[in-house]
Amino acid sequence: MNAAPAGSSPPQAPGQSGQRPPFWRPESLIATWFGAGLLPKAPGTWGSLAALPFAAAIVWLGGPWALLAAAAAVFLVGIWASAKYAGERADPGEVVVDEVAAQWLVIFPVALDLKLYVLAFVAFRVVDILKPWPANWADRRVKGGLGIMLDDVLAAPYAMALCYAAWLWFGRNTCFPWTY
Length: 180
Prior knowledge:
Number of helices: 7
Number of domains: 1
Helix content: 55-70%
Distance between the termini: 70 Å
Oligomer: single chain
Number of strands: 0
Order of helices and strands: HHHHHHH
C-alpha cells in the first residue's frame, strides 16, 4: 500500500499550496518573465522594467505595430502561462507577464521616442497600483490566467492616455504609430 505516513500530506502538483513549478519550465519562464518577477521587493516594477528593453528591441526590429502584435501575443500566451504557474493561487506576485503585456501597450503610442519610455513606465506603474475601473473590477471578479492578465491590460489605456496627453502638451515632438 502506498499510503502517506500519518501526519504527512500527499504530494501536491506545482502551483497548489504555494508550490511553484521548476524555473526551467516554459510556464515559469514566461510567467516570471525570465525571473524578473522573482527579484526581491516590488516584482511588478521589476517586470515592467524588464519589459522595456524587449519593447525597444521589438520596435527597432519591426516598428510600433510589431510591438502591438507582440503585446497581444504575450497576453494570450500569458493567460496560459500564468494559469499553469499559479495553479490554485490567486495572482502570485512573482507572475509579471501581465505587466509585460500591459507595459508594451502603454509604450505603443510613444514607441519611437525612447525619452518617453520613462513616462510610459512611470504612468503604467501608477495606474497598475491604483487599479482604476474596470481594472479593479477584473482584479476582484475574473479568476485564473485571464484574471491575472486582464486587470493590467485594462489599466493600460489610462497610462496610454497620460502619454498621449504629455505628447500633446510638450509640442508633438514625437511620431505616433498611427500617423505613419
